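Subject: Protein record for review, amino acid sequence with backbone structure tokens
Why sent: The fold of this protein is of interest and is recorded here as tokens.
Enclosed: The protein record, placed directly beneath this head.
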Amino acid sequence: MGLLGRLRKDWFMVGILVVILSARLMPSVGVKGGPLRPEITIAYVAVSLIFFNSGLSLKTEELTSALLHVRLHLFVQSFTLIFFPVAVWLLLQVLALTSIDPWLLKGLQTVSCMPPPVSSAVILTKAVGGNEAAAIFNSAFGSFLGIVVTPLLLLLFLGSSSSVPFSSIFSQLFMTVVVPLILGQVCRRFLREFLERRKLPFGAISSAVLLMIIYTTFCDTFSNPNIELDLGSLLLVVVIIFSIQLSFMLLTFTVSSRSALGFSPADTVAIVFCSTHKSLTLGIPMLKIVFEGYEHLSLISVPLLIYHPAQILLGSVLVPTIRAWMSSGPKAVKLSNLQPV
């Protein structure tokens, strides 16, 4: 694949670098009160558009076949929304004794509170030949669950900015996340055939809007002369993120592949990816709402921006290995042949 093809494939990653650089060069454009008016266009319009788009693209009609596998879903959701944030919190108690930027450490905690993504975990599960239906269900259900659980976890572990009342946070979450998501699902019921026929680029639309949110977030940072990013801390955080990813993938694989739990190899694949992947699409808008008023919001966002490509990179690298493991063991069992629990 040539350079142009690689750039086209990874345009979102390139876009993140471009918007951060643009924010560094022209921070006045995206700050509050600036030409973009992010307090309106981003806080309400962009965030609402992302979740309306998610509701419109989410194929909830495909989830019924996976609904009865309660044990698998309980494993994934418990790991990603309970074990993951608690384990990271314990790790941060140790890392707090180091010289790593405390705002980046807070960012690591925010990563742990995020639900699984709707896209990457499903794509990688499918690429390996895993239980795609279970991956779709847990990604979609996790996103719905994350609307309520993620803000609560963020407030529990990190608190909120003093400038935004607790009630205001959840009213804005309801208006910009829940309502658009429901509207998107309602519209999908009437437009399903059209949407399936036209194959609209839902992912690209959300990613483009997400770049706008990232841009304005970093505009606020670069317009504040009191905020500096410690490169040493950043490199350490990158290492920590990859270590967390690998450790948790190994942990979920080791536990879920035990015969005593009764998961098939296909189930294990879905568990590994869904339990360890975190949603950037939900995460960045959520942070923008919950931590409105934090001058260090962009620093808190950095670990999530790193975690996103890290999970895709590691997952892609491990696809051949996991596929080989599946082919060497018992054949993947189709979801319809499994007994629900």
